[in-house]
Every structure is written in C-alpha cells, then in structure tokens.
Amino acid sequence: MKPFYLTTAIDYVNGSPHIGHAYEKVLADVIARTRRMQGQDVYFLTGTDEHGQKIQQGARAKGVPTQQFVDEISAEFVQLTKLLNLSNNDFIRTTEPRHKQVVADCLQRLFDQGEIYRAEYQGFYSPRQEQFLQEKERLPDGSWPEIFGEVIAITESNYFFKLRSYQQWLIDHITANEDFVFPAHRRKSLLEFLSEPLNDLCISRPKDRLEWGIPLPFDANYVTYVWFDALLNYYSAVKDLGRWPADFNIIGKDILIPAHGIYWPIMLHALGLPPPKALLVHGWWSVNGAKMSKSTGNFVDPVTFCQQWNVDSLRYFLIREMVVGQDADFSQEQFLVRYNSELANSLGNLVNRTLNMTTRFAAGVVPAAGVAEEPELELQALWAKTRDECMTLVEGLQFHTAIERTMQFVTATNAYIERRAPWKLAKDVSPEGGILLQTALATMSEALRLGSALLWPVMPGAVDKIRGGLAQPPLAKWDGELEWGGRLAGAQLGAVDILFPKPPAPEKKA
Ligand code: MSP
C-alpha cells in the first residue's frame, strides 16, 4: 500500500485553541488512524503559524517579547495535541530554523528563476488581514467589508510573485483533477473565482512595518508575507523524508480561496513540485447557533470541555455531529443527547452488561458459542453488512454515517441480549438452556469486540479500555480483527471503569 501523508492547517498563535481548531485536528487524526488500521504507512503533520502582523501586534499588546509570546501559545497547541490524543508524527512551528531555511531557499530559487520581481505598489491595505485590497473588493456603497478592519492607503515598493502567469495552468489542473478539492461545491467556487484574472502576489513586507517574519534572502529590508511562509510548512516538514506531495491538506473553508486553492498549488508548480493530491475543506462550527467569539462568551475551550467530560466523548461528538465539508452547531444540549443515548446508554451499557453477565453467569470466562440460531445469524449478518458499508463510507469521508451504522449494530446487540435474556437462561437447568446461555454470552462479547474495533479511530482510548476488559491487546490493525469468529472463547474478562458516567442532573431553575 502506498504511504499516505496528511496535514492540517497550522494555527495562528495569537489566541488559545478553540473547538474549531480541535475539530480539524481530530478529523485529521481519525483519517490517519483509519488508514493505519487499514495497514497504510501514514505520516500526519500539524503545527503552528507564528509569523506576521497579527502575532507581532498580539505580543506588543501583551507587552512581552514576540518570541516568548509565540513560545507560550504554541505550547498550548502542543498540549492540545496530547489532550486530544492525536497521533501526529510531527509538529512544525514556522519559527523553527528547519522551516525558515526551506522558505529562504524556495524564495531564492524563485527569485533566480525570474518568478519574483520588484514593483511599486500604490493602493489600499488591510493591516488586520495583512492583505492588499483591490477596488473590486469594495462594497456597493464604496466602503470596505468589515473583515478588513481599518483600511489604509499606501505607496510601497515590494516584491511580487508572478501568480498570473500560472492561472491557466491552475485552471487546467483543477479541471483535469476532480479530486483536487473536496467537497465538489468548493471546487466549483474555486473555478468560478479563477474565471476572473488574478493579480500577482505581493510576497514581501517592509521591515519598518513588520519585523516578525522570515527575511527575504535577496533583500534584508523585507520579510516574507506570512501566507507564503506558512503554506510551505507542509513541504518543509517532509522535504528530507521523501513524503511530498501530500495526499490531503485538510483546511477550513475560509482558507481555500485564495491561499490553499491558488497561491499554494502555483507556488509549488513554479518550484517544480507537484501540488497536493487533494485539499479537504471542512466547514465551520458555530456555538449555540452563533459565531464563536471570546468577547461574547460564545466560546468552547477544548481543554475545559475534556476535563469536564472526557476526550473520547468530545472526539465522538465532533465526528458524529459534523458532516465533513458542511457546517455544524455545537451546543451542550446536542452534546448531551448524543452522550446519553449513544455513548452512555448504548455503548456503555453494552460494555457493562457483557462484563457483568459473563462474570455472573460464567465466572468471567467467555464460553464458546454452542449453536447459531436465528438471533445469532441475524446479528452476524448485520455485522458483515455494517463492516462492509463502513469501509465504503470512510473511503468517502462519510464518518458521521459510518458511526451511525456502527451504533445501529451496537443497538442491535443490546436488542439481541434482550431477546436471549441470559438472566432467564441462567435459571434454565436443561442442557439446551446451558448451551443457549453460553451462546448468548459468546455472541455479545464477540459483537462488542467487533463493533468497538470500528470505533477505534474515533475513540482510541475508550476502545482500548474496552479491549482490555475483553482481555485483548490494544488494536494495531484491522486485518484479521473484523471477522466474526470465536476469538474470545476462553478469555478471562476483566473490569472496565465506567467509560461514560451519567452526567450530573441539570440544575433546576428556581
Ligand atoms: N494560520 C492560518 C492557516 C495557515 S495554513 C498554512 C489560519 N489559522 S487559524 O488559527 O485562524 O485557523 C486554523 C484552522 O482552524 C483553519 O483551517 C480554520 O478554518 C479552522 N477554524 C477556525 N475556526 C473554526 C471554526 N469555528 N470551525 C471549524 N474550523 C475553524 O487560518
């Protein structure tokens, strides 16, 4: 199987991480873990974006040296990778020498090739977005859209990258490669944007305006435009590992146009490198129906959330609730609905019943199944269907549906237990009753082993605990683990702490 390289956007270190950052990283982790389960050699990169005006301003506002400022906030993002149980192979910071060197080398190469030229720029600039504006970006009343903040008129000598000369190449590339952007409607918007002529990209900022950046190797009076620097992280991190091109660059919908959809493939092409195979564009989380914002208190901090609940429940909710590519809303109510019905009452309940009944009725040792009658055959058939459907669904990034199907199998297993009612069989002293009891106990633990294996990429911690209870080692690969069989016969089951404790009752309103 081919190696697989995937990346996330690298987060700005001008504020603490929120649930949107957490989602993107968990999504990437679920893809990475799924592919490793399938036997693929996966390399997963994430990191922080640490240069530019926003960062310099943030540090000044706090009155601390910029390096100290970025070190502190980047450390929070590193902490987040641990808290979220991410399986990333590397964490890149754009202030690291290994990255700065690659950026300088790439710039020098493009400069030597004549892809970069110097020119006088006269026009409007948004310090907030660190972006030069065009007349067409004005609103009909002549004002500038709010996202640009205060807009200033400037005249400045700068360096430009010849973006426009690659416009047709990019259009052809996107047209020829249907999979270059996921989902399809984002690809369409990108092509629409490209139907208008592009401007060349200003890639420098004079040092007297911005100090905090990578110096241009051919002119020490300038630093590199932050996007030109940041995008190269995907390449600089793996340049010497032979991993380029990336299979997936995972990003949010706000940074497709123009950064990842236009600058990035053109930069690579001009450098003689292949573009990423696919840009996977996810939607945005709102919180309680509104845009997330610290100032309005509408902000979910993943650290606090994991302390209050647990990381597996957060990962589960994020992947279960959001359709990859679409927006979703985060609310405590909706979280509780999923937590209670799917995690605590369905999966958690199956774990408890399996372990408790095996302990009570078989001294904790999983018996061999004696027979396979209709209830067993039905459950086995549902398993085969669920597993095959899930493999197709995850291939198409439909993780929310794959989880839904798996949970239907868990529910069906609980229904099987009701149907066989081992507590009644335990009272039946006939040989047939004994065989049916053994069969029921064997079937429920086998179904739990299988169903939980499918959930491993989403909840690796919880699933490995379940496996511990079933006397199984942590899951390493799906190969040989997804077939119904008598694998657990003879296993001495252990205890598992309650995985999804019942939430405290909501406070009553007076
Ligand atoms: N530093 C740039 C990315 C450079 S990539 C070479 C940046 N940083 S960011 O911190 O603003 O955003 C990081 C990622 O988080 C982006 O992909 C962005 O879309 C995503 N999200 C930020 N807010 C989000 C939500 N509310 N919901 C989901 N994802 C969100 O952009």
Number of distinct helices: 17
Main pleated sheet: 7 strands, parallel
Shape: elongated
What fraction, in percent, of the residue positions are helical?
40-55%
CATH architecture of the domain at 332-510: Orthogonal Bundle
Q: Indicate the structural class.
A: alpha/beta
Arithmetic mean pLDDT: 96
Report the radius of gyration as a whole number of Å.
27 Å
Could you tell me the CATH topology label of the domain at 332-510. Isoleucyl-tRNA Synthetase, Domain 1
For this structure, what is the CATH homologous superfamily of the domain at 332-510?
A: Isoleucyl-tRNA Synthetase, Domain 1
The count of strands amounts to 16
Name of the CATH first level of the domain at 332-510: Mainly Alpha
Ligands bound here?
5'-O-[(L-methionyl)-sulphamoyl]adenosine
Runs in which pLDDT lies below 50 for 5 or more consecutive residues are none
Q: Span between N and C termini?
A: 61 Å
Summarize the helices and strands and which ones pair or pack.
Blueprint: E1 4-8, E2 11-12, H1 19-37, E3 42-49, H2 53-62, H3 66-83, E4 90-93, H4 97-112, E5 116-126, E6 131-133, E7 152-161, H5 167-176, E8 181-182, H6 184-193, E9 201-202, E10 204-206, E11 215-216, E12 219-224, H7 226-231, H8 233-236, E13 248-252, H9 256-270, E14 279-282, E15 285-287, H10 302-308, H11 311-321, E16 328-330, H12 332-362, H13 374-395, H14 399-420, H15 422-425, H16 431-455, H17 460-469
Helix pairs in contact: 2-3, 10-11, 12-14, 12-16, 13-14, 13-16, 14-16, 16-17
Residues 9-12, 20-21, 23-24, 49, 230-231, 233, 251-252, 254-255, 284-285, 292 line the site of 5'-O-[(L-methionyl)-sulphamoyl]adenosine (MSP).
